[in-house]
Amino acid sequence: MTTVSTRLVRLLNMVPYFQANPSVSYAKAAADLGVNRKQLEQDLNQLWMCGLPGYTPGDLIDFEFVGDTIKVTFSAGMDKPLRLTSPEATGILVALRALAEIPGVLDPAAARSAIAKIEAAAGTVIDDDVQAAEDEPAPAESDVAASVRAAVRDKRALAIEYYSASRDALSRRIVDPIRVVLVGGQSYLEGWCREAEGVRLFRFDRIVDVELLDEAAAAPQPATEAPPNTALFDADPSLPSATLRVGPRAAWMLEYFPVRVLRELPDGYFEAAMTFAAQEWMTRLILGFGADVQVLAPESLVHSVREAAAAGLAAYAYLDD
Prior knowledge:
Blueprint: H1 2-20, E1 24-25, H2 26-33, H3 37-47, E2 62-66, E3 69-74, H4 86-100, H5 108-122, H6 128-135, H7 143-154, E4 156-164, E5 169-183, E6 186-193, E7 198-203, E8 207-216, H8 221-225, E9 241-246, H9 253-256, E10 259-264, E11 270-275, H10 279-288, E12 293-297, H11 299-320
Antiparallel strand pairs: 1-3, 2-3, 4-5, 4-8, 5-6, 6-7, 9-11, 9-12, 10-11
Helix pairs in contact: 4-5, 10-11
C-alpha cells in the first residue's frame, strides 16, 4: 500500500518537475525524485500512457528525449505540483491515523511522519490535545507485524506458528505472502498455504511466531492476480441473520462458517451473527452443537430449534419405553 501511494504522489509531481527543469539529465532527475534510473524509466513509460479524455496520441502526456536528457512537450494540464485541499487533507489524515493503529498495514513511524508532513503542507489546524498525541512517539510495532509486512513487501516466504480456534492448537505452516487485507477492523495476511495448497487468511493476532525464510515467495500466479477473497466475511443483506451465543468448545465455528463476531463475552463466550438461507438447515446446524451454541434471535429460529430439540428428546423417550 505504501509503495503504490508513494509512486502515485511521485507521478503526479513529475510533469511539473520536468517543466521546472527542462532538458534535465536522467541522473539528476532520478536523484531529485529519489529513485534509480530503472524506476525513473518505468515512471516515464507510465506517464506516457496518461492524459486527457479521448486518450488518443495527441491527448497523452508527451516527452522529448534528446541524448541523456528529458523534456516535457505536452503536459495535459498537469502544470502544478499536487496540492491537497483542506477536506482532502483531513480525509487522508483520518485514514492514516486509523491505519497506523492496525497491525501490519503501515510502518507506524512512517505513518506518523507522513501525518506530520501532510499537516505541515496543508496548514491543517489541530487542537492542543491532538497535537500532543501527534508529538508522542509512534506506537511500537510487534515483531510479528513487522516481519509479515516485510515479507509482503519483499515477496519472501514465511514460516508461521498459527493458533487455530477450530483445533485449539498451534500449527506450523509455510506461507507465500500475497497481501495484507483488512476485514471488519482486523488485519489478515492473505497467502498461499503450502500445507493446504490453497489461499488462506491468517489473522494477525493469531500468528504467534514468524520466521522470514531465505527464499522467494512462490504463490501460483492465479492466486497472486486474483482479488482478495473475503467471501467468508460477506453477508448477503437479503438473507436472514441469526444472533448466537457461542461457547468456548464451539469457537471453531467462528472460522469455519460465515460468522461475524459482535462482541466477546466473559469466560471465552462470543456473541455472533450468522446469515442463513434456510431455517430448517440452520436448525439442524444449531442442534448439532448441543448446549455450546444458543440462539438469541430471531424468535422464529429460537422456536424452531426448541421444537426440534423437544421432538428429538421425545423420540429417545419412545425408544426407552
